[in-house]
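Please check the following for our workbook:

***
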Amino acid sequence: MAGLIRRSDIDEVRARVNIADVVGDYVTLKGAGVGSLKGLCPFHDERSPSFHVRPQVGRYHCFGCGEDGDIFTFLQRMDHVSFSEAVELMAQRIGFELHYEDGGTASKDHGNRARLIAANTAAAEHFTAQLGTPEAEPARRFLGERGFDAAAAARFGVGFAPKSFDALGKHLKGLGFTELELVTSGLVSKNDRGSTYDRFRGRLVWPIRDVTGQTLGFGARRLLDDDQGPKYLNTPETPIYHKSQVLYGLDLAKRDISRGKQVVVVEGYTDVMACHLAGVTTAVATCGTAFGVDHIKVVRRVLGDFDTADSTALGEVVFTFDPDEAGQKAASRAFAEEQRFAAQTYVAVAPEGLDPCDLRLKRGDDAVRLLIAGKKPMFEFMVRRTLARFDLDTVEGRVAGLRAAAPIVAGIRDRALSIGYVRTLAGWLGMDPDEVGRAVTAAQRRSQSEQKGSDGPERAPGTQQQAETPTDAGPSISQLPNDPATRLERDALMALLQAPLEVGRDLASRVSQAAFANPSLSVVRDGIAAALGEGPAGDSFTEHAWLERVLEEVPAPFRRLVTELAIAPLPEQSGRDLRVYCRGIATSVIDRDLLRQKAELLGRLQRTDSTAEPERYGQIQRALVQVEQERRSLRQD
């Protein structure tokens, strides 16, 4: 059994790993001031980014829900691993050899999650190797008939599961995996008699990976006539595979989604392959389930999808649907959740109802690109689809069409867009725009009335879910007064916590001895003073170790405030010398404190009789001179 990881090694790994690189695998981060990044919080649903990451201090903090921590905490929350597993994963990432207390070594298992991922990874390698065997000829033929060669199969990790009840199980057991691990991972199943058998047999197999590229499960397509199973068979729900939270192809598409601000949602694995090979490298697909709320959360984090006043900065979400009944139901479900996106939503329907795979096969790569380029706004698609059910050549049909389409237009958040659709709908119906406008307004009122009268805490689609923050979580930066004195104290502490080397130990020490007016900030100042007082000069006076030291010194209720001060963007524009700003704000606090001391000494001087107490009077005068000299020296520096 592994021993405890040495504390020094933990600190070393924490210091070496860039937290922004790891968090960036899950969340699209953008600049948010000097040394700060922000994105949509992965721990709660929000429309505007409140999740901040500061690489210099190695921490993250969400100002919406209060979640915060370092790189190890982030991995524990996102991947459900233990602390030791998180440290070992990061050490492996940077090639750092860990040392354990009492001469122990790393656990061979690396925890349950890591073992399940390792089993799936080994299975994926086995399947890809099997694709080249004679038995896999039906699988290769299937791919070839759809325009995919060996290079395409390799690019997407496509493999073949042999028609055997135990080939995979035996192979993985030979690699050291236990039967329990294989059953838990969903790679083998167990019958009523307790015997195990391979879940995937005689099928074409696609690996389903998370956003970081780790294999969590598989999707498998039936190939053989004597296979009585479903056309597509997926990994069941496991501790690491949740079909409502994974999207096939996201690991390959995430970079281009983030850069291009576009995601294309298709319906199948081969559609994803066809899109990527045709140059639409932002395509993803669900895995055996409908596109739902959890998928939206994943897409929004990667897309960087948040409300902005700049409409040109909004992203695009493009859905492709088959023309059959199942495709139309999928379109209705997608529209029902449309307003959860800040991005603009579109629908792309290929001519003749072809899906992207068939479209590429029949008309080439250009046709797939043109399909996406010719997308139609989601609202236009739904309104036209609704009107198609009515005979608009009759008065009755037009009135019924208006009644059916008005609620769709009423659901448009953007007022300018809503007004435009009122005019467009009026043109399609051949009706007066004012009449259509009244119908849309009435639909809006009915919707609002239904929302107010509904029971339970459910929110209307598209509204932001407010994160619950514990009332006893201690003071936060948002609760601080906004007066000039408090802002100065806040900004100085932010500089000390975020850029201690720029401030310098001497100035930091003087700030920590200055009087503060705000009680909460005074506690943080005292924590900084205590942290500075430990060890020799310069010891642990680096961003990562420094913040940890201060957090250890302050009382527990104030740690949230310390973290927020260490993460919040500095109120200093990029491009200027950070050192000048940090030393300047620290100097301002010291100068204010010297001014306070001067005022107190002048008051004492006025109350002292120079004749009756000449010695005391002289001491006060000398103290005044010293204070004034310090102020002049401070300003010169």
Q: What stands out?
A: The CA atoms of residues 106 and 531 lie 33 Å apart. The first strand starts at residue 30 and ends at 31. Residues 455-472, 535-539 have pLDDT under 50 and may be disordered. The two ends are 57 Å apart (CA to CA).
